[in-house]
Amino acid sequence: GDLVRSLKTNGAPELDVKKAVAELKLRKKILEDKELALAPSDATFDRAKMEDLLRRRFFYDQSFAIYGGITGQFDFGPMGCALKANLLNAWRSFFVLEEQMLEVDCSVLTPEPVLKASGHVDRFADLMVKDIGTGECFRLDHLIKAHLEKLAADKKTSQATKEECQDIVVKLDGMTKQDMSDVIQKFNIHSPLTGNELTEPIEFNLMFATQIGPSGLIKGFLRPETAQGIFVNFKRLLEFNQGRLPFAAAQIGNAFRNEISPRSGLIRVREFTMAEIEHFCDPNDKQHPKFDSVKETELLLYSACNQMDGKSAEIIRIGDAVQRGLVANQTLGDKIVAKLVLVIFWFQGLVANQTLGYFMARIQQFLILVGIDTSKLRFRQHMSNEMAHYACDCWDAEMLTSYGWIECVGCADRSAFDLTQHTKATGVRLAAEKKLQEPKVIEVTEAVPNKSVVGKAFKKDAKIVQDYLAALQKDGVVEIQKALKESGEYVATINDVNYKLTKDMLIVKNYQKTVHVEEIIPSVIEPSFGIGRIMYALFEHNFRMREGDEQRTFLSLPPVVAPLKCSVLPLSGNAEFQPFVKQLSQGLTRLDVSHKVDDSSGSIGRRYARTDEISIPFGLDVLPSVVRDLSYGKTTWTQVESAYPKKFLELNKEAEDKAHWRSKFTDTI
């Protein structure tokens, strides 16, 4: 950690920094694995038994299983659908309704220019190789790492080769396509499954490509995240919010990533549900009006600083974590200082602002509400070399599972990256206005189009060119003015189409203007929830085995997300009591209580076990036969209490009137 700090401070070559950071990550991983190995193990957890229960009761299973299945794709059954729906309803209530967010539902099919502007087309890729015999694909960095680690562990390998293997693994993150190809050749790496030779490395974009429309001319992708639909609708959302900042937009929907090697069940899949929030705020004022309500919340924070120093995560009040960064917030207006400030945040393990801190606390509150074990929850700050291209700070809510710590929620400060990129690509200003305390005079340089000339030259595209000119900043106008003066023309590229501008098409005006508002491009704080991953963590954290009978397994989910809320278990199968059971079921339905009537054959114990397996939290035993026997002297109350040692509730007339059903029977709840 000290070496990385020193290299960054002294402006060392990028390759040296990458090598040091890679070594740091390697040591951090070894330390974390050792920490997990030394921690008390959950001897009661058995992943195989849990997965058997989930498949047997059809929470989920592999898609197209009768055709052999497809890796990384899963279908949810009745219980899985109900759990997922309850989880999303709880999310919508907790965030969208309580925070008064603006919910949208945007298209999954996304035109290429949108994702080109966001950086996904150029940066959302991995290198892979194929088995030339079978066509099986392997992610190249994972393949090289696994092969060299195995080679280095072999007792027959020379010390020099071991050191070379370790050095390559450390440098792997910074290697180019050619570097990795050379490693494949040097170490004669083949397919780990068949021993066949491998193809040359291929760049593989993780987005699913498609064509929109019958002509095939409009290239598009299945969206890799839901966020871009919100960003491109920012202007409409701002208008809906009467032009005021801050505000948040939210979206629930499916996203797609064509993973090379999907694995670990629901954790790494190709199609997944996301619930994302984009909170738009003033980049120079990231205070949150409700921060005081959460500032005492304690979170387990694993800062980048602690990761570099080989320290463990620390329990810190979110108010204290943000307090440490208050000085830094005062200088965010200057880009150079802001960059230094973010480095300070990273080195000191600070939470950059109140809004980011507020959402981290709310994320923890929500996860606990739906059943995540607090002892298996932490927030880990991204290190600089793992930060997404759009983020300036990010904390992941990670949950400890049998697969280790897995990221389930990301909370990122995306700054103004996305709105700026889409403004550049389209010429449409995605900005807000902020009222000034006092009016000020500004210098204005603008390109004024000659509409008649532009109209004749570009016809149906004239408005595109006019909007482009209207959206230009001073630097862009000066660039056009210079080109027209030197060569008499300027080529403007708008949405990948070139338009040639000439002197007669526009004039450049310079003047002063008094303004009462200033234009700002909002920063974005983004909590992004991976619903499938949260569901998997819920399964592990709430899986139980009966004490003394490990073959009897069940789930103990909180009522708020449990697939069904109540089971109705008639203790008598007599036909004369069926109308009563039906009436009771209808009453529960009218009260919007999801339930299951289990009047199948078998002992009451066996039926209880079936309801426990699918995590039904409440049970209603219907005991008409007991009441009948009491009424006719066939049993005594003492005998009933002995047989059913739970509290009985005798419904009197007043209670009957309040209920949706009328009954003279006594029920136990």
Automatic annotation (TrEMBL):
Keywords: Aminoacyl-tRNA synthetase, ATP-binding, Ligase, Nucleotide-binding, Protein biosynthesis, Transferase. Pfam families: HGTP_anticodon, tRNA-synt_2b. Its EC number is 6.1.1.14. It comes from the Eukaryota. SUPFAM superfamilies: Class II aaRS ABD-related, Class II aaRS and biotin synthetases. Residues 188-559 form the Aminoacyl-transfer RNA synthetases class-II family profile domain. PROSITE patterns: AA_TRNA_LIGASE_II (PS50862), WHEP_TRS_2 (PS51185). It catalyses: 2 ATP + H(+) = P(1),P(4)-bis(5'-adenosyl) tetraphosphate + diphosphate; tRNA(Gly) + glycine + ATP = glycyl-tRNA(Gly) + AMP + diphosphate. GO terms for biological process: mitochondrial glycyl-tRNA aminoacylation. Belongs to the class-II aminoacyl-tRNA synthetase family. Homodimer. This is Glycine--tRNA ligase. It comes from Timema cristinae.
